[in-house]
C-alpha cells in the first residue's frame, strides 16, 4: 500500500510571518491519514521544521546541489537541507528546468546526492502545451523519467510528480482521462525499469492548479497517490480541504 502524500510547494513565497500556516495545519491535522509535507523557501526551512516539531507534518527543500559542499556560491547541499530539518526535496521542477536550465542529467545527479543523504526525492516531470498539442506528452514523460530518475534499491524514498507545465498556476487542469493516461504510463515505465515491486512502491503525484474544488475528482484517478500543490498550499484554509479530500480517497 502506498501512503498518500499531500505536498505543498511554496516556491519563492513566504517569510517568518507565514510560519503560522504550519502551526494551523498541525492543529487541523493531528492524525492525518496521509503524509503531509510542506516545502518552504530555504530561508524558512529551519524555522518551519521547528514550527512542526512533534506534529505529523514534514518539511522539505525545493532544490539541492549534487555535491556535498564546496565552492558553489548560492547553492545548498542535500546534507544542509537535512541539517535544517528537511526530510524531502523537490527536484527538477519545471521552473528550475526553465529558469535554471536544469537538464535531466543534472536532476539525476541531484537526486543521487539527495538519496545518498537520506532525503525522500520528489522528481518533477511534465510536458509543455506545445508538446501536448503535438501529441508528444508520453514521449516527453518517458524521456524525463529515464533521464532524471536514478537507479533505486527501493521505491519508498522516491516520488514522481506529474506537473503539466500548462497547468501550473493557470487554473487549467487536464481532464481525469488525461491524468490517468500519464499516471498509468508512468507506473508501467517504472515497473518495466525497476520491477513490479519497486516500481509499485513509487508514489505518483499530480500537480498543476490543484484546488479544493477539483481535488476529489483528481484523487479518484487510479495511480494518483497525492498532489504537489503550489498556490493552494500557501494558506491552511486552502490546503486543508485538499488534505481532507486525499484522506477520504484512501
Ligand atoms: O508547480 C506546482 C507545484 O510544484 C503547481 O503550482 P500551482 O498549484 O500553483 O498550479
Automatic annotation (TrEMBL):
The active site is at 93 (electrophile), 163 (proton acceptor). Pathway: Carbohydrate degradation; glycolysis; D-glyceraldehyde 3-phosphate from glycerone phosphate: step 1/1; Carbohydrate metabolism; erythritol degradation; Carbohydrate biosynthesis; gluconeogenesis. Coiled coil: none annotated. InterPro entries: Aldolase_TIM, TIM_sf, TrioseP_Isoase_bac/euk, Triosephosphate_isomerase, Triosephosphate_isomerase_AS. It comes from the Bacteria. Involved in the gluconeogenesis. Catalyzes stereospecifically the conversion of dihydroxyacetone phosphate (DHAP) to D-glyceraldehyde-3-phosphate (G3P). This is Triosephosphate isomerase. It comes from Sedimentitalea nanhaiensis. The lineage of its organism: Bacteria, Pseudomonadati, Pseudomonadota, Alphaproteobacteria, Rhodobacterales.
Amino acid at each position: 500500500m502506498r501512503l498518500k502524500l499531500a505536498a505543498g510547494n511554496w516556491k519563492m513565497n513566504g517569510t517568518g510571518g507565514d510560519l503560522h500556516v504550519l502551526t494551523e495545519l498541525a492543529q487541523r491535522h493531528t492524525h492525518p491519514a496521509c503524509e503531509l509535507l510542506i516545502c518552504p523557501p530555504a530561508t524558512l526551512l529551519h524555522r518551519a521544521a521547528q514550527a512542526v516539531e512533534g506534529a505529523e507534518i514534514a518539511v522539505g527543500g525545493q532544490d539541492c546541489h549534487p555535491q556535498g559542499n564546496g565552492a558553489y556560491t548560492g547553492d545548498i547541499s542535500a546534507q544542509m537541507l537535512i541539517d535544517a530539518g528537511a526530510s524531502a526535496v523537490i527536484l527538477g521542477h519545471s521552473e528550475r528546468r526553465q529558469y535554471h536550465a536544469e537538464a535531466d542529467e543534472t536532476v539525476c545527479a541531484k537526486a543521487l546526492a539527495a538519496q545518498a543523504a537520506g532525503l525522500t526525492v520528489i522528481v518533477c516531470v511534465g510536458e509543455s502545451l506545445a508538446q501536448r498539442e503535438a501529441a508528444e506528452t508520453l514521449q516527453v514523460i518517458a524521456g524525463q523519467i529515464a533521464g532524471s530518475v536514478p537507479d533505486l534499491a527501493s521505491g519508498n524514498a522516491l516520488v514522481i510528480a506529474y506537473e503539466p507545465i500548462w497547468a501550473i498556476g493557470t487554473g487549467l487542469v487536464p481532464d481525469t482521462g488525461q491524468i490517468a493516461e500519464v499516471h498509468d504510463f508512468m507506473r508501467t515505465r517504472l515497473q518495466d525499469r525497476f520491477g513490479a515491486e519497486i516500481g509499485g512502491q513509487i508514489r505518483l503525484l499530480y500537480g498543476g492548479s490543484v484546488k479544493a474544488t477539483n481535488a476529489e475528482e483528481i484523487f479518484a484517478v487510479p495511480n494518483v497517490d497525492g498532489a504537489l500543490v503550489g498556490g493552494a498550499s500557501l494558506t491552511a484554509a486552502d490546503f486543508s480541504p485538499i488534505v481532507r479530500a486525499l484522506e477520504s480517497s484512501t
